[in-house]
Amino acid sequence: MSDRAFRNPFPDYDGESVLTEEGKLPESFLKQVRGKIDELLSRVEAAGPEEEDSVYVGGAGRAALYLHLHTTVGDGKGEEYLQKALANLQRPLSSLKGRKLSFLCGDAGPLALGAITYSKLGQAKKSQECLERLEFLHSKVLNDASMPDEMLFGRTGYLYALLLIRRELGPDFVNSEIISKVVQAVLDSGQRMSKEQDWSHPLMYAWHDKHYLGSAHGLAGIFYMLMQVKDASMSSALTTLVKPSIEYMLTLRFPSGNCPSSIGSSSGDKLVHWCHGAPGWIHMFLLAYKTFGDERYLAAAQDCADVIWKRGLLKKGYGICHGAAGNAYSFLAMFKLTKDQKYLYWACKFADWCCDYGTHGCGTPDRPYSLFEGMSGTIYFLSDLQDPISARFPAFEL
Length: 398
Fold this sequence. Notes:
By secondary structure, this protein is mainly alpha-helical. Helices cover about 55% and strands about 0% of the residues.
């Protein structure tokens, strides 16, 4: 195989039903998954608190995991998981710096999670305080000319925080005008760069002067987030700005079905990560298919899924951003849309791989217990797999 991925050792799907007659995954498989969740969670907790504060690799990410477990696992520990989420948010909420404003790597993450957690605990006043602080950030998001538009550090990362509040607490909890202004700022920025640099498609973005294409820093993540804004006012922009730009991205794919990390990248057809490559693009293509009804987008997503099945067991590890768990969300997204059990089978096989955590000789992430690089992300995926139709890629899929 490549120097970045292990050879996939699993037999391909043979057409047998993955689900029981009741439409559930087999209890023997779920028992294995639940056992691994408990084991890995014990290891995460034994490691102590994260040294950083962000959702991406810090304490707020640990809080996001507990909030997720409250919903997906429960097992009589719902209140306990909420209290653990709150405990992991205390330092991030008291250490907001106002320099980074996105959900994954900035202040918006702890504030949005704080608003949701306090609300679920019945502490409405503290929830409202977090929400007000989150909305207060929008002025800087709109007016800071140096702020990028990408997911990890930029405007669409802040936009996700607002949309998450809307999903979890209801539309009345977020000022819709703020959402509209942030969306317009992202659209204006993309049109401005496209015009200034004379691109053929209407929206172009850059991060650190490089035109990234993936979900973390690039176009796939930006377009995916814009398509998740369901406001009627978005209809025209989706048709005239986002769709033609996704059309351009169709032309950039490798013959393998994989997708480049950036325009002019020298790395070639190597990266199969959520942050760079097919595992990030597939979400954009699937939502484009649902939004515009063009079968070419579904075909592109299927090509992405094929290459992830072949090359998605990464030597980097089992995490969300660049690991087997994050790549498996591609299959869950395909299954949710198509109901083709082949993709659920693929997701389950990647889960089998994750259940053998640490036995394959993978590299150790810099933050080995964190949500996006490490073990917490694997737990998040395994807990989602118990109800595949409800699964959502964390901090990305609404």
